[in-house]
Write a structure and sequence with these properties.
2 domains, 69% helix
Length: 118
């Protein structure tokens, strides 16, 4: 390589700020910056809309997960079936149903045998 073989860019690119700042990747860098800025704006807009919806529903946006968990824990969905009643209570309920005419004596006898069997 000779001393006079040094690289010099073409004259039209010497004063171009994009080429001198980013090299040959100027267009891609600008495109990336624009896409990044658009994504930031999108995320901010979505966050503001969610905040407004939660506030409108009476939920604190900063504690929404805890509020939803508390509502779920206190709901009937997780409480399950009621505690089993005693044999005496179940037999008394059968007697009451027969007395009111809801069930027949035969139905009462069958249900009574099932309760006593366990």
């Amino acid at each position: 390589m000779h001393a006079d073989d040094t690289f010099s860019p073409p004259v039209d690119q010497v004063n171009d700020p994009v080429v001198t700042t980013f090299g040959g990747m100027g267009f891609l860098m600008i495109l990336f910056m624009l896409l990044f800025a658009a994504m930031v704006v999108f995320v901010v807009v979505v966050a503001i809309r969610k905040w407004a919806v939660l506030r409108g529903a009476g939920i604190d946006p900063l504690t929404v997960d805890a509020q939803i968990a508390a509502k779920l824990v206190n709901s009937d969905v997780l409480k399950g079936a009621p505690a089993p009643t005693s044999v005496e209570e179940r037999l008394a309920r059968l007697d009451d149903l027969e007395r009111r005419g809801v069930i027949t004596a035969d139905e009462r006898a069958t249900a009574r045998a099932d309760i006593l069997r366990g």
